[in-house]
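Q: what sequence does this backbone want?
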């Protein structure tokens, strides 16, 4: 569903991503792990077209999107929940979700969105800026889901969120898999969350993929060593 071949990226004169190769199967859940500054967000921004690709190739469901603008990638099936969530604070919960329906044939929010995130139904008339960090994260995921994506990218979804909400988000991601054949890629530093949601884990360090494992074969101590400062 998502294929990355020989992806390189630069900030100014700094080489930030080095020959990234990943093949993400349809309907799978993949976690990209690494400390801050290791290249997770840079990779996601490159996949989304926020950063132009310097070299390499990105395909989604067999469609080459390497030279596409971000809005074109959205139309071809990529949805992105950025680090920090970036919801619209002055719009209501309902209005925030509706912004994801801009290009949809039907403007009605699917019932399954509120069943995945019941708190959003309870607060649908509340301003987004009045929600807690965890509620805003659920709102950002809901907004991405209504675009009906093939690939959902979540950048550090547990950052700054209390443990009980982290469990709710993990539960929702697992429910999404039952409802739709969405391919989910998460960047993360919390190993317990990754083990709850991912089939496969990658570790990125210094812009290079340095480790790959299935969930069943994960050596937790090895992953923690990569994540420790």
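A:
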């Amino acid at each position: 569903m998502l294929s990355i071949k020989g992806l390189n990226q630069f900030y100014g004169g700094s080489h930030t991503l080095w020959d990234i190769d990943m093949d993400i199967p349809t309907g799978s859940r993949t976690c990209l792990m690494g400390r801050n500054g290791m290249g997770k967000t840079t990779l996601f921004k490159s996949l989304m077209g926020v950063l132009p690709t310097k070299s390499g190739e990105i395909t989604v469901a067999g469609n080459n999107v390497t030279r596409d603008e971000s809005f074109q990638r959205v139309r071809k099936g990529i949805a992105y929940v950025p680090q920090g969530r970036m919801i619209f604070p002055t719009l209501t919960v309902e209005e925030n979700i509706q912004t994801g329906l801009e290009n949809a044939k039907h403007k009605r929010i699917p019932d399954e969105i509120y069943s995945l995130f019941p708190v959003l139904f309870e607060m649908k008339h509340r301003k987004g800026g009045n929600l807690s960090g965890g509620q805003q994260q659920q709102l950002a995921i809901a907004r991405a889901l209504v675009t009906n994506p093939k690939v959902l990218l979540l950048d550090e979804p547990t950052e700054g969120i209390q443990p009980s909400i982290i469990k709710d988000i993990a539960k929702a991601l697992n429910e999404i898999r039952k409802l739709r054949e969405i391919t989910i890629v998460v960047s993360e530093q919390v190993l317990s969350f990754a083990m709850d949601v991912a089939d496969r884990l990658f570790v990125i360090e210094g812009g290079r993929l340095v480790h790959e494992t299935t969930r069943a074969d994960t050596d937790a101590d090895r992953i923690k060593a990569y994540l420790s400062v």
